[in-house]
């Protein structure tokens, strides 16, 4: 872990060099601008191409975090796998670096490009639901809002993210946890197939029966293997409405919350979820403990299950006893808004939760936020979602290697002053390292204990994929030998 900071900086420098080289290449070829050639190739299609002088370009490079806004040479919005294939082949032939943008939530700039091409999938957001087959097909640029809404029309749902403006693409390809994980596993556990454009431009289907090795790889490390233009998910009958919402407490409630969390862990049967989030938001910057609760069933059962928490004196009660299912993945949108500089981080902790751990966590967080201007919207979330179903699948079954007897912690640090960038990054890394130790994880033998979609880039493939790293690197040589898909966790980087 000591090498993460240096590796991160090295990776950024490599990207900068590549971008400068690209910028140079574009300039030298001004007389015969390569993007003009691409424009000609795409002219008969429905793809849209934006360059820095195009109307709408500024909007097209915006991301969930301002730190990920980069000045791409071209943003191209395809509408089909064929069009994606044209762009990938063109970029490879011209040696222009490219990235794929799904929902745009990566805080490591994995979906942004300085001087290269962005393949922006925002025009590929169709969803089709087959109630008889119990499947949901989602195009590669969908957000979870698209999927939740379409599936709900048929009384169905699949496992997706807890914030519905995140992308189906990035979230699924890295694993995918959500409120339905305790009942149905990860998003990748429900992925039946994916239509993909590979680095050489071929369009293939990856499934248990077609390119099974590729299917193994994309379930956990998918962003490193191609552009997924369509996902096919297994759907499940979904009760509607459900019992869900937020309770906001002062830190003095922590002893009772910790006691409840441990009781929750012991009694949950897969139809409940609880996320404990710590923050000290403006305008008061007073510390609060937010409990996001979900009971996948009727109000009477939800109320009974969460009674010990409901009886506590809360600063705010935003529980909806009959929340329409598609709104469940909006309940923490209010603390996950666009704008500002942000960095995601991740670690894990083991139950039972202790009061000492929670109090130390809060002290560390508020200590940092109180001593730095404009950092109060940062959030640390402990995701208490039963992983029994996740652990029923082995860590070797797919590239994803984070199935263990622990829960995830997600950190989102948010700030405004670019001068704080490095300090926040360092704190985020140290904080998550501390959580892992203090939360009792140490060196887990079962799973890696970090979620690839949360941990900052710069970690080694072994840290992120554990014993699956070597096989992933072999498959990378088969499916992307020139490492064109290198902006997510870079599988080709050695330890
Ligand atoms: C507010 C917030 C809430 C979150 N909640 C959850 C949660 O509940 N559960 C969870 O598991 N994770 C969660 N995450 C983490 C989330 O999984 C990652 O941020 C993920 O990368 C988001 O995907 P995206 O498509 O929005 O991002 P992007 O930045 O567009 O993409 C991330 C990576 O995936 C690649 N990619 C995207 N789409 C495709 C595609 N179709 N084909 C190939 N590559 C693609 C991109 O190239 C990039 O490398 C959350 C993140 C945020 C910011």
Automatic annotation (TrEMBL):
Keywords: FAD, Flavoprotein, Oxidoreductase
Domain FAD-binding PCMH-type: 68-238
Cofactor needs: FAD
GO MF entries: FAD binding; oxidoreductase activity
Top-level taxon of origin: Eukaryota
SUPFAM superfamilies linked to this entry: FAD-binding/transporter-associated domain-like, FAD-linked oxidases, C-terminal domain
Keyword hit for Flavoprotein: yes
Family: Belongs to the oxygen-dependent FAD-linked oxidoreductase family.
PANTHER family listed in its UniProt record: BINDING OXIDOREDUCTASE, PUTATIVE (AFU_ORTHOLOGUE AFUA_1G17690)-RELATED, FAD-BINDING PCMH-TYPE DOMAIN-CONTAINING PROTEIN
Name of the protein this chain belongs to: FAD-binding PCMH-type domain-containing protein
């Amino acid at each position: 872990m000591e090498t993460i900071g240096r590796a991160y900086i090295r990776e950024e420098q490599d990207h900068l060099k590549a971008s400068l080289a690209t910028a140079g290449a574009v300039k030298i070829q001004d007389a015969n601008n390569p993007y003009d050639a691409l424009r000609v190739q795409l002219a008969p299609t429905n793809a849209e191409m934006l360059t820095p002088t195009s109307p709408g370009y500024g909007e097209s490079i915006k991301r969930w975090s301002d730190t990920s806004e980069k000045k791409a040479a071209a943003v191209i919005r395809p509408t089909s796998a064929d069009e994606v294939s044209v762009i990938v082949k063109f970029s490879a032939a011209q040696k222009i670096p490219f990235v794929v943008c799904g929902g745009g939530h990566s805080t490591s700039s994995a979906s942004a490009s300085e001087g290269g091409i962005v393949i922006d999938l925002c025009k590929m957001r169709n969803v089709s639901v087959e109630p008889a087959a119990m499947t949901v097909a989602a195009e590669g640029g969908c957000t979870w809002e698209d999927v939740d809404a379409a599936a709900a029309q048929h009384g169905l749902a699949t496992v997706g993210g807890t914030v519905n403006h995140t992308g189906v693409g990035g979230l699924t390809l890295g694993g995918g946890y959500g409120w339905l994980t305790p009942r149905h596993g990860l998003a990748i556990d429900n992925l039946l197939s994916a239509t993909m454009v590979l680095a050489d431009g071929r369009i293939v289907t990856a499934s248990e029966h077609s390119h099974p090795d590729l299917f193994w790889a994309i379930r956990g490390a998918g962003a490193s293997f191609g552009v997924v233009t369509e996902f096919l998910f297994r759907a499940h009958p979904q009760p509607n409405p459900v019992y869900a919402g937020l309770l906001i407490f002062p830190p003095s409630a922590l002893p009772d919350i910790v006691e409840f969390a441990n009781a929750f862990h012991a009694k949950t049967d897969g139809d409940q979820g609880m996320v404990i989030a710590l923050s000290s938001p403006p305008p008061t910057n007073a510390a609060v403990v937010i409990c996001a609760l979900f009971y996948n069933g009727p109000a009477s059962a939800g109320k009974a299950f969460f009674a010990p928490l409901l009886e506590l004196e809360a600063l705010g009660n935003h529980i909806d006893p009959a929340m329409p299912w598609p709104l469940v993945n909006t309940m923490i949108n209010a603390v996950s808004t666009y704008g500002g500089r942000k960095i995601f981080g991740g670690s894990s902790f083991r139950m039972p939760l202790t009061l000492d751990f929670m109090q130390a966590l809060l002290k560390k967080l508020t200590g940092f936020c109180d001593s730095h201007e404009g950092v109060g919207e940062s959030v640390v979330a402990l995701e208490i979602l039963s992983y029994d179903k996740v652990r029923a699948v082995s860590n070797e079954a797919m590239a994803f290697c984070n199935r263990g007897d622990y829960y995830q912690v997600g950190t989102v640090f948010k700030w405004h002053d670019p001068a704080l960038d490095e300090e926040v990054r360092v704190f985020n890394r140290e904080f998550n390292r501390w959580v892992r130790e203090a939360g009792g994880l140490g060196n887990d033998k079962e799973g890696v204990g970090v979620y690839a979609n949360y941990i900052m880039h710069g970690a080694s493939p072994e840290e992120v994929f554990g014993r699956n790293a070597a096989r992933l690197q072999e498959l990378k040589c088969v499916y992307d030998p020139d490492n064109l898909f290198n902006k997510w966790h870079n599988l080709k980087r050695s330890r």
